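Example A, followed by Example B.
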Amino acid sequence: MTGNWLADNYIEILGVATSLVYLYFSIRQIIWLWPFGILSSAFFIYIFYRTGFYADMSLQVYYLLVSIYGWYHWIYGARERKVEKLPVTRIRWQTAIVLICVFVILWLGIAYVLINFTDSDVPWGDAFTTAGSIVATWMLARKILEHWLLWIVVDAVATALYLYKNMYPTVFLYLVFTVIAVVGYFQWKKNLS
């Protein structure tokens, strides 16, 4: 029984494992988080396609692109500033307003697509977590402290969605993500510039 479950879910387990490594490196601000983000995204593209989370599947493509951008920015952004490591910063209010608008537009647009063009049974929740993840990942690439706060909300909502879909390894992963986002916030806050 356990052997069958492992055989049927090994890709999801690999996705969870690479995601946990990604999170560990993210909290520690270790640049190797980006390659693990790429691996994790590749696994979850398949997983979300298989389970009908189409917006989340598309989000993984975005994660691949942002992982490349983040990797580049963490290396060359630090060099441009003539520092060893890109510093953690706080969000500026102008940036926060723009990101809130981007989030709302993405949420509504993604929900519209999911409602009208897919068989998704969780379009509003899937769209919410996708829009929030897009914004939070961009903030991570820029090393903005408050991305952790957004992740807390997104990961908690995602946990409920995956529980509804009986995706238990992913439920576990997102529960861990939620707790680690809290830890990450306080860890990064210590490193504010």
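Example B, a separate protein, is given below in the same form.
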Amino acid sequence: MLQVQYFNPFINALFDEKVCFLTGEELDDNPDFITVFPSWVMDRFELRSRTFKMMDNHTTIRYEDMKLPCTKEVKSVFNSLEKEIKAAFEGGYEAVCKLESEKIFWWSAKIVYGTLYTDLVAEKKKQDATNKNLELSPTLRERLSFFHLTLQTILHPLKYKDRQPWSISIVQLKYTKDLFNYHDDTINLLFSLGMKGFGIIVCLQDNGLIKNHYADILGQIGQTVMHPIQFEELYSRFLYSNFLLKNKPKFKFETNGSGYVLEALPTGEAEFGKRDDNTFAAVLGEYWKPWGIEAKDIVKFPEGTKSFLETEKDYQYIDPLSIDLPF
């Protein structure tokens, strides 16, 4: 008989410090917490007292104040995961490539969900103050519900029919400084991290569609050491393509008598809306700011759209060593 009870906080907006963020269990007056950003990350990169900009682009919160209430079991499980992730990250690109994809997913998903949770708690408090309910569109609620479900597999493994719902791309990356270059999209569920030696892009719910769309350029990149400006462009392409994707992944969650199964419903080949170069330039310009390149510098007539990732005529990967920009 199946005993696992999966928790969906998006049904009744259960975002409360007295409720475990992962299991939905009620907590006592002295709940345990895990920080959204791991302690070792905050210590190594001196992030604790720095501020993180929230979704509204105005509100900020200190990194160390971003916390998720949880049971002791959940805290223990994530602490064990942190030890393994930390060791791999310190080992560099080769060690990261050896990590199981589920562990990279759980680690990145916890951070993305944690930032989303922090936003939702703040918004819920605003709505409560005016006697209103926190409202999410049915489409967004469904997407985030399945995302939270897959995060719960760190406690209760389930079977994935045909394929896992996420995709992970790992590249070699060169920085002259030891840094934690983090980006996310908590609504469309993307994660990007650049560290000294490697970069990771995780599409947390793409069924592989976005990664497959860029299979050619990823194949050309291979194990070359990317320039950071190339990595930022790669993430920008993933981000914009995810926005253009028409046939968004859909899932079915059911039991088969012996366990729970999450099935990615067929979507066919990825279909994308028409790309607008100026819109893409606005996205890319945000990530090229460290090099002083703005959106207005990216699209020019008759040169076309500027790229450091591939040539415009034959889409060949540009040699990172040919890029004369700081890294």
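On Example B: Residues 35 and 184 are 17 Å apart (CA to CA).
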